[in-house]
## 1
Amino acid sequence: MTGERMTGNRASSAPLLQVKDAAVHFGGVKAVDGLSIELTEGKIFGILGPNGSGKSTLLAAITRFVDLTAGEILLDGEEYHTLPAARVARRGVARTFQTVRLLPGLTVEENIRLGADRVGGRGGADGVREAIERTGLKGLERHRPGELSYGVQRRVEIARAIVARPRLLLLDEPTAGMNQSERQEVSALMRELQKEGLTQLIVEHDVQMMVDTCDHLFAMNFGKLIAQGDPAGVVREPAVREAYLGKRWSQHV
Ligand SMILES: Nc1ncnc2c1ncn2[C@@H]1O[C@H](COP(=O)(O)OP(=O)(O)O)[C@@H](O)[C@H]1O
Ligand SMILES: [Mg+2]
């Protein structure tokens, strides 16, 4: 995944992704409520926010799992929020889910291959092998998910998401249920993928990991953006501490 390949066809210098005044309402619940963010290519972005603040819904909107109630999303400066969900992977947007969603009857390798099938086999056998190597899953190809630790299953999910060489990878709580060394492995993997030019947006509750891993943080509360910027600065903002960090962050400083 060279920078040239990923940016080669891009006409403008627009950010990779722009979310503009986006809202997602479920009946009376304003899960996302007038939120604007921009993702520039090649950076690792993070979203912090208490449970129910709309983080997963925002990711669902960016992968077209849910429709916007209002606002717009642009990819490479072009309208994206009306794209059929089935076309999202082909546009280079991939995600992992908050809960492990591997098919238990398939092997690791078969699960990963599904990620390539979603984009018409892009990546192919070489892509599958490469994704296995990049995520440190070599030797585990023939295992079934149930035989693997939770942390390894997460890596399989990440491998499945990157096999089609996305430009933007969305990770929803990828280290939930992991121990410290598994978390550090995920963080290191994200940095490696960044070196190859992959833009990433991660939702994660581990504040220290977010500060260490991300280039830019967004903080959400009640569907709105309450702060953004340099990670160390964001987690020190009073509004962010009040909304979210009180207990968690006071343990770190
Ligand atoms: N499909 C849905 N239908 C109805 N309400 C939903 C749906 N998805 C999320 N919500 C609600 O939207 C709000 C934001 O949820 P979510 O995006 O999952 O938050 P987070 O990921 O930050 O914990 C919550 O009040 C949640 O109950
Ligand atoms: Mg969530």
Note: The longest strand covers residues 29-39.
## 2
Amino acid sequence: MFNVETIRKDFPILSRKVNGKPLVYFDNAATSQTPQQVIDVIVDYYSNYNANIHRGVHSLSQEATDKYEQARQKIQNHFNAKHAHEIIFTSGTTHGINLVANGFSSLLKKDDEIIVSALEHHSNIVPWQMLCERSGATLKVIPMNQEGELVMTEYDKLLSKNTKLVFVNHISNALGTINPIEYIIEKAHQVGAAVLIDGAQSCPHIKPDVQALDVDFYVASAHKMCGPTGEGMLYGKESWLKKLPPYQGGGEMIAEVTFEKTTYADLPHKFEAGTPNICGGIAFGAAIDYMNAIDFDAIAKYEHELLEYATKQLSQIDGLKFYGTSKHKTSVISFNLEGIHPYDVGTILDKLGIAVRTGHHCAQPIMDYYKIPGTVRASFAFYNTKEEIDIFVSGVKKAKMMLS
Ligand SMILES: Cc1ncc(COP(=O)(O)O)c(C=O)c1O
């Protein structure tokens, strides 16, 4: 049974005060909070079995290696990857995207085309622009509409035999739109293009099945789903990961090194040069366990209730304009108050103990489309409550009164 009051007890940070007021944390799309169960795993690692992995014969190293590889299997099961070696530990979504973009440098040539969407976070734009500079390929963009949805008829027109790669997010961080990735993947495959899905914002809310999606690459960050920062994963189909060259050279990723020639290790180690964030990987596994124990269907249902409740309350405020009004959205609300800069609203909310994000949310093209400098973004997690939304809505009203 989903019980938010019981869940909240797992998160020590939720009982602290900010500026003398109880914290209302609505910046979950930037980073989620960490439950005690995950904090305990981190403390246990450093207290009891901190050691380098895959190299030592000693017991501590073996213990850490076992826990790290068990975490890889947890991630494999969670995303339903066929093989554990299709899961590459990364430092986060950004790292995963750069790894793939770098690998494609040697596979693309002039006249090849790659497709991005208008709804992307900068980390799913810039690495591909850099790839275009290196390879001579051209970047095409799926446009968006006023509701903050991708225009699929335009996507269809962009696809051709020259298309080699398509990369879109599963859910937009700035607007919360859930993109039709099943359609995007199917259409891309029809022209022989590979697809990378940026799952940074979907993983906290839904449980993606990479085999059912038939996606080629899927990336995520642990810190968006109750895990630690600096940790994430790249899923890649075995055939693609075998084809891509290593991203970084160093220890761990080699089979044999001589000054004449180096041969590379098998998957997944080929992409995991150097000492990884061992504790981070293990804690990522613990975060996945934690969220699965709560249940993703229950999480999605409850967060949808929060979204509807907050949308209804906020829509009663005169001069408040929402950005991102798709029917298919997750628990993110982006808005502005007429004539007021989003930063000023965020500053007043902070004084009231309410944490929201303001600005362009690393998605400047979306702000350019709407011709605004940014928005106020409130993003809810399964540990938030309707009472917190009431506090937030009265905070927005107060900000409007003070700044008008
Ligand atoms: C959609 C999306 N993609 C990529 C990222 C980058 O994630 P990270 O900073 O964890 O690498 C974010 C972070 O906010 C995001 O929301």
Note: The mean pLDDT is 97.
## 3
Amino acid sequence: MSALIFPVPEPVCASCASCGGRDGRGGRPAAPRPAAGAETARGAALPPAAARAGTPRNRPRILPIFLPFAGCPSRCVFCAQDVQTGQRGGADSIARAMEQAEARLKQEARTMDTAREADATQPAPGPLEIAFYGGTFTLLPEAERAACLELAARWRERGVVCRVRCSTRPDAVTERGLANLRAAGMDCVELGVQSFDDAALSAASRGYAGSVARAACAMVAGAGLQLGVQLMPGMPGVTPEVFRADVRTALLPDNAGAHPLASFLRFYPCLVLRGTPLAERWRAGDHVPWTLDITVDALADGLLAAWARGVAVVRMGLSPEDGLDDAVLAGPVHPALGQLAKAEALRRHVAAQVARLPGPPVRFGVPRRLRGLLWGHANGLVDAYAAMGITRAMVYWRDDDNFSLE
Ligand code: SF4
């Protein structure tokens, strides 16, 4: 009996921490992936995963430089950047962040030099990717933005930094401004789109329309910058259906052969954080957060949609900064949210293939690297796999990046 062999659908990025398989200079697509469900004789080799989409081996480490609320025209209803980033913000926050970054980069340079001197045959630690996060980078006062870019360029010249990215709002970019950023060494711009839906954007008082967000995505990609799109399932006005539509829009264009403009996505399910206007709405009963089950269900669909277009989802949920737990009043918070969603997406991917078998499955090969993920967080998917006819006894671990079903 021949086996049904199909690859892990998640794109793996070869060159950076979050590009979803594109290179760092404006969007060369990942190597083409074999069609899921390609049927071969048992054991017939599909191309190894590393040849298809690279390995994470060479990803630069990220050095986040948090600039809480810097440049933001107003405070968004759900946002508590000081809590989310663990940084205080305030008038001197940019200067403080730059001082800390400078000290860290000096330390990195020393570590690299020491490693090279100690053993020239061993590779020194790789360079860093600077990420200006936590505010609206493109609306920073000119002098402060220039100081940020100068710091990045200086350390790039010394080989300590290899890439630079920033985050901003869709209504805070212009073609000219993006061209200037590109010329100053910016590689990637992440847009805090949150939603493309006009009603949701209005309900969350975001201050721009979906057409502005779509145009901003096109502008970033058109400027030769990598584009990252951040979406917020569960934001006021964003239902699961709206979120699914947002993911589809974030993956445009969908004409044959065209790679999406976005190199990668981030999903940040909306939490009610202490001290935000959203907390007041929630207390008044005007905002109902998504449950964890609804969130995982929608995220799993979003993951599958993104993976089907070769786009990685590089983050699901806020980073666990100090103080975040205390600040969360309500919402789908879980320490393993990404794992929950990924495991469920993989289960759905496998279920679609099980349905193609002529009879019940008897053997199930799984890439060894998924050992900790297959059965879900705390083995929560064992019963769901059993319902598909897959038990632990029939699983074996494969050394390539393909599943196989017999
Ligand atoms: S623009 Fe972004 S960083 Fe600024 S308040 Fe709004 S969500 Fe927060």
Note: Residues 19-57 have pLDDT under 50 and may be disordered.
## 4
Amino acid sequence: MGRDSESSFSTASLGEIGTSAMICIFCEQKGPSNTVAHIIPESLGGKNSPVGRPGVTCDACNLYFGQKVESKALASFPFIAHRIFSGIPSKKNSMPSMKATIGEIRATGMLGTIEVEPRSEYVDALVEAGDVTQFRILAEVTEPLAVCRMLLKIGLEKLGKHFYEVAAAPRVKAAREFSRRPRRGQAWWFILRCDPHQYVKDLRENTESSIEIVERAGVLFSVMNTSGASTMIPLEESAQPPSSSELPEPEFRIIHAVC
Ligand SMILES: [Zn+2]
């Protein structure tokens, strides 16, 4: 994402609030909060990313996000491609796969090595003969709602780690709601920047995923970079998506999600 008019989000010290005084920002209940999880899921290269702050998300909400939101989001584009090329299995140890023009491509568990299940004998013969040197994957966000909700959860946890009072404040209430319990008809959006060549480059260079909160024209955004894909999502409802002339396709896309 462009950085010219962005600034890293910072705020005057709001004073430390102890874990005992915290309630879960998503359900606003004071439930047990013992889950220690990386803010960026491990399967998105977040193994070395910071872990969430205890007390920000309760165990019940963490479980809910894992089962209902993240599993769906991580099994779809753009994140599935990251997992296939990096060879990252699911939590249940199955290898991720996705459809491509030549058939089904599957992770092998080895970085940068994939397995191809050709869709026909003809394609199989071409692959065997070495006549297929490239393939295309369907780069469509098929689960915009799940992806959007996961991105909000990641952003809010990052915000909550450093500025709990802001993450719990009315300013980002709509984002918390959309993430945990979207209302029918409620909509959100994010910007996706994809570069297929970047996948290979990032993997080769072992680029680590990153997450940061920025303030742009007075609005908080969460910016996440994983290999080959960057996302930028507003944490405030008032933000309007940029026009497509500002961020031209196909490099940038504005993805809308409606509940
Ligand atoms: Zn909760």
Note: The longest helix spans residues 144-162.
